[in-house]
Each structure stands twice: as structure tokens, then as C-alpha cells.
Specification:
Elements (H helix, E strand, L loop, with lengths): L4 H11 L4 H16 L12 H10 L1 H18 L7 E5 L5 H9 L5 E6 L2 H10 L7 E6 L12 E7 L10 H10 L1 E10 L2 H16 L3 E4 L17 E6 L2 H7 L5 E12 L9 E2 L4 E3 L2 E7 L5 E7 L4 H6 L9
Parallel strand pairs: 1-2, 1-4, 2-3, 4-5
Antiparallel strand pairs: 5-8, 6-8, 7-8, 9-11, 10-11, 11-12
Bound molecules: S-adenosylmethionine (SAM).
S-adenosylmethionine binds next to helix 4, helix 5 and strand 2.
Length: 320
Amino acid sequence: MELPVPLRQGVERLLEKVPLPMLKQAARTLSDRYRAELRDGRMHMAEEMAVKAYLATRLPATYAAVRASLDALSEARPDYAPKTLLDVGAGPGTVLWATLDLWPDLEQAVLLEASAAVRRVGEALATEAMTAKIAWLAGDVTIDLADLEPAELVTCAYVLDEIAPASLPKLIDRLWQLTDDTLLVVEPGTPAGWQRILAVRRHLIEAGAHVLAPCPHEAPCPLTAPDWCHFSRRVARSRLHRLAKDADVPWEDEKFIYVAASRQTASSRAARVIAPPKSGSGKVLFKLCQKDGSAGEKLFTKRDGDAFRLARRLDWGDTI
Ligand SMILES: C[S@@+](CC[C@H](N)C(=O)[O-])C[C@H]1O[C@@H](n2cnc3c(N)ncnc32)[C@H](O)[C@@H]1O
């Protein structure tokens, strides 16, 4: 999955004259802070160079994860096309770009972001081609949500790992109150990210939400540690991305986990592929999360005819 062309070009312009050694150092520091899930009272992206490192090394991956999560919720509700968006911890506007890519008729977006350096970059990247009315707000998601207006789509992508765990239940309550229709939360696809999404999912179900995706049910998650639910998207690495990370491979696999919860029920529910399919000659085996709340396996062989031919095209994260 690639960034939309105007976003990619905007990022390239912002990164044009950045000295590579500084970018590399900033990318290393950012990556170390994210890996350690460091919460030391400082923002990971307080400095402009950290924001540039994010644009070069993280934005393509978080964009791909958000876009894939939006696709999954749209598949569960094909008639849903939100006109209003509230995105908290907006970073450089990742969710806004992904939402506009899927629903170009979005009319209004409010983006809340604590870091002034990131907000500046997000505003610079947003183009005149965006017809939606966009407001960037300075604020802390744990304390500054009181005066916000509800939106049809509320999102929080790759933010919960930066928030003190004790603040999460209140934050999720407030985001749900602000949700007129659907709330999407995306996290890194690590065991810790999955645990956070599980807690969010439980909390929202207790509040009366319907799960649109990825789970085709509201029963407790059937997976148990050390297994964990997550998905993956292959992301092309730009030349600068490879240089910033001293990486040879022109792509990376972004692991992510998400939950889309709604005030509306899903139009349809289907089992979801929750691991890479295992293909052999004349057969393909899927690990599935199923409508009855269980996890199970399903084997398709040549003898299944058309169903087998269709199944062979399915990938991790697809519905079946
Ligand atoms: C990993 S970035 C994700 C950005 C974007 N949502 C994405 O998916 O690419 C997390 C963002 O959340 C912001 N953030 C972290 N804690 C916050 C808080 N308490 N209030 C508002 N924003 C916060 C950070 O400044 C950063 O821009």
C-alpha cells in the first residue's frame, strides 16, 4: 500500500534538504522510544527533526494500517460514508488522508494533537485539494476533550501506547460519547497493543457498542497468550526511508491491530482470516475468527471447486 500521491510529494518536499545523519539519529531515537513504549513525560515528537523522522520511517506504515482498518469497517457497513471526522493524536494527519482516500465526500474534520511541531507539519501537508473543512486543535487527549463536538467517525490511531494506562478507561468513555456512529482505534500489532485493544473492545461492548471489525462477534476474544490477534500490511520503503534506517529491503511489513465499534450493527458478518494462510499443492488452510466467537481452522482443497479458487486469493485479514 502506498501513500496518496499528493501526500507522498508533500513529504518528499519537507524532507528534501534534511541532512541524512540528523535524520538517521532522529529515526533511531524515535524508534527506541516507541519500542520501549517510553512514557517519561516528554512527547516523542516534540522536535521538528523527530517529526521528519516520523514522516520518513513511520507515516507510510501507520497510513497503511489505518487505511486497511477503514477498509475492514467499510466492508462491514458498505452504506456508511461519514461526513464528519474527529481524530485524536492526529500526528501529521494520517487518518485524515486515509479517510479522504476512502470517503472523498467527508465534509468536516477536527484533528486534536498535543505536539505543536507535528501540528505544523500536518497543516503544511494538507492540500488545497481537500475540500473538507479542517480544524487542527492543540490539546491533550486525556484532558481536553470536554468541549469537542461529536462526529460520525471518531479515530485514535497509534496513540494509546503513549498514554498512561490509568487514563485509558476515561479516554475511551469520552471518545465513545463523542461517537455519533463509529469509533476506530488502531494500535501496533504487538502483544501489548493487542491487550490494549482487547481492553478497549471489552469496555465498548459493555457500553453497548457493536463490533464491526475485525471480530465478527461480541463474545470474548477466543485467542489466548502467547497467541495474539494482529494483521499485517506490506509497505514500500522510499529511498530516504532505507537510508534513514540503513535498510536494504525495499519494503517492510507493518503489524497492526484495531477495533471498529459502532452504534449501528454490521450489515453482514463473516469469519476473518487471522493468520497468514498456509498453502500447499491443491490446498489452502485458514485460521479463522468465527461468528460464534470461536477460533478455528478451515481447509479448502481442489475438490471444493470454485470455493477453492476463491479461497486461494484470500489473505491474512480478509473475510471469508
Ligand atoms: C505514533 S503518533 C500517531 C499519529 C497518527 N495518528 C498516525 O497514525 O500516524 C502518536 C501521536 O499522538 C500524539 N499524542 C500522544 N499523546 C497525546 C496526548 N496525550 N494528547 C494529544 N496527542 C497526543 C503524539 O504527539 C503523536 O503525534
